[in-house]
Design brief:
Blueprint: E1 39-44, H1 47-55, E2 77-81, H2 82-90, E3 96-97, H3 112-117
């Protein structure tokens, strides 16, 4: 697993436990070479984003009981793939981001300046 560091080079904060998120389902946006999707961006979901995501073929709101997934609701925190966030941004549908909870590996796909524009946790 890559070092658990956020976009500021500080210890990566927990993203979400209900539902449990992250590539490793450890509640954090940890990543490694195994994580081909780079589930590194901690977002706050909105109804608009969930609908957009479903429309784009990534249904995050429908429960999948066989995997213990209850489905996301507006307001939930979730580790999203960096490329999926960037795609949503390009379609003007990007959700807010928690920078302290976003893994620095996301910066390989998304410039920090862009993430800061959507920061939910900057003063």
């Amino acid at each position: 697993m890559d070092e658990s560091v956020n976009v500021f080079g500080e210890p990566l904060q927990h993203c979400g436990a209900e539902p449990l998120t992250g590539f490793y389902r450890d509640g954090a946006c940890n990543t490694s070479e195994e994580d081909l999707g780079s589930h590194t961006v901690c977002i706050q979901t909105t109804a608009e984003f969930l609908e957009y995501s479903r429309f784009r073929g990534n249904d995050l709101s429908t429960p999948v009981p066989e995997y213990g997934f209850k489905g996301l609701q507006p307001g939930d925190s979730w580790c999203l793939c960096a490329a999926r966030w960037l795609e949503a941004y390009q379609h003007k549908m990007a959700p807010k981001v928690f920078l302290g909870r976003t893994h620095r590996k996301a910066l390989e796909v998304i410039p920090l300046k862009l993430l800061k524009e959507y920061a939910a946790d900057l003063n």
